[in-house]
User: Which sequence fits this backbone?
């Protein structure tokens, strides 16, 4: 960092004895500012809650010794002594888990597997102990009530995981921590990426009773589809801005400000580019070929799949292609089993028991984005899907150092750095995203696009 700005100075002068919020634009040095903050107030022991494990690991090497850097799940895992249980911890519950629960509890779930599992998932990431109609996406009131009653029964069984050998999920033990324990042993808590926190984590922060230093940017919130909400607005304390970007020059800052001007809730502060960094924004034409340190960015896995399925050159995908391929294979398997019921399941375990379940979940305004993506890919490419998957597996390389073509979705690329970013055509334009209720619903599109505009996405 070149020099401490007046905005950073104002933050460093705030003692960690009361809560405050930092609104930090893209590339504006929020982590560096928190590092300086921890080294300014060395007499105060703090907990830094990181967005993911990689960020927590990096923070441990940077922050002063009186700061403990962890993810919220890591803290809950340790506090609840999950490791001593010798239990399987999985990412989410599937249809097969639901069928097993029905047998164990001696009652029927009362609805389609994906709806029941979505209800459980919505409750686990929410605040409080009551399962309400809002948690359940079933529109029919009677079925909604039946599903909620089953989920309440299932949760009561699952959360007592010291009494059974059923698999537990990361969301389950975090919910148990929210209901039964609280964060202790610190003078204050710093929380990063506060624009993308689950309500259950916001509840955990509030229940701690400690001063909270929350850092984030509402315009970089891209995980609403996973249930994340804007904790910046939900938490207390005055707001301090960070608007000087160290990452990109004024042309990129102007583009970001122009995009954000179409937001239904316009930013209170404009981004300022770094005069020492040369940047340019241009229309990508077919003849331009990506070189090293260039990222080709798609909004969705579906667009990424379509682009890579016809590739004739080696490429790398951030996060790998296995999860994408296995999910598509599983969806295609559901499609095939309509006509061949005896066909064995293949690919990743999905929460949909049949092709009809997946199709229903993919429809409507409240469509499950995963179901919508998988349904669209299979419907469009079912006749050539095997060939396209083989092409992807053939040309994929494990290391980005071995190729000049690196690809990603906006979510996987968040926080990564590249000299140039080529954005594909499935991002909404400001003109298409402007106006009325649509403006509200497409806000995450603009946030994702803003995040993607900078050389570090």
Assistant:
């Amino acid at each position: 960092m070149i020099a401490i700005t007046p905005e950073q100075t104002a933050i460093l002068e705030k003692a960690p004895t009361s809560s405050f919020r930092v609104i930090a634009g893209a590339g504006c040095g929020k982590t560096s500012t928190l590092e300086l903050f921890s080294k300014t107030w060395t007499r105060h022991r703090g907990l830094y809650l990181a967005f993911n494990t990689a960020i927590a690991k990096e923070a441990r090497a940077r922050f002063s010794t009186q700061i403990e850097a962890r993810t919220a799940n890591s803290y809950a895992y340790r506090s609840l002594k999950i490791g001593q249980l010798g239990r399987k911890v999985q990412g989410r519950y599937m249809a097969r888990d639901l069928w097993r629960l029905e047998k164990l509890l001696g009652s029927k779930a009362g609805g389609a597997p994906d709806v029941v599992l979505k209800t459980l998932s919505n409750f686990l990431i929410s605040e409080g102990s009551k399962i309400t109609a809002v948690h359940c996406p079933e529109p029919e009131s009677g079925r909604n009530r039946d599903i909620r009653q089953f989920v309440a029964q299932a949760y009561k069984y699952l959360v007592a995981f010291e009494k059974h050998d059923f698999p537990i999920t990361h969301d389950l033990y975090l919910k148990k921590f929210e209901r039964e324990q609280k964060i202790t042993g610190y003078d204050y808590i710093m929380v990063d990426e506060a624009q993308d926190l689950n309500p259950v984590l916001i509840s955990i922060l509030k229940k701690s009773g400690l001063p909270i230093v929350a850092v984030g940017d509402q315009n970089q919130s891209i995980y609403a589809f996973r249930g994340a909400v804007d904790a910046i607005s939900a938490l207390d304390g005055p707001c301090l801005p960070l608007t000087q970007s160290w990452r990109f020059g004024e042309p990129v800052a102007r583009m970001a400000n122009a995009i954000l001007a179409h937001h239904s809730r316009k930013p209170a502060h404009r981004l300022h580019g770094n005069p020492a960094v040369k940047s340019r924004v241009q229309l990508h034409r077919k003849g331009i070929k990506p070189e090293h340190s260039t990222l080709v960015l798609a909004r969705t896995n579906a667009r990424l799949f379509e682009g890579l399925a016809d590739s004739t050159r080696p490429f790398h995908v951030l996060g790998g292609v296995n999860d994408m391929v296995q999910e598509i294979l599983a969806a295609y398997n559901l499609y095939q089993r309509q006509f061949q019921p005896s066909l064995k399941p293949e690919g990743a375990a999905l929460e949909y028991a049949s092709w009809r379940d997946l199709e229903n979940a993919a429809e409507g305004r409240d469509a499950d984005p995963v179901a919508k993506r998988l349904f669209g890919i299979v419907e469009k490419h079912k006749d050539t899907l095997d060939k396209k998957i083989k092409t992807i597996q053939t040309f994929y390389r494990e290391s980005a150092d071995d190729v000049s073509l690196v690809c990603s979705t906006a979510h996987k690329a968040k926080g990564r750095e590249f000299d140039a970013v080529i954005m594909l055509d499935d991002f909404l334009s400001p003109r298409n995203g402007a106006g009325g209720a649509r403006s509200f619903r497409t806000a995450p599109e603009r946030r994702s696009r803003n995040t993607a505009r900078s050389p570090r996405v």
Notes: Residues 86-176 form one domain. Residues 119 and 135 are 5 Å apart (CA to CA). Residues 141-159 form the longest helix (19 residues).
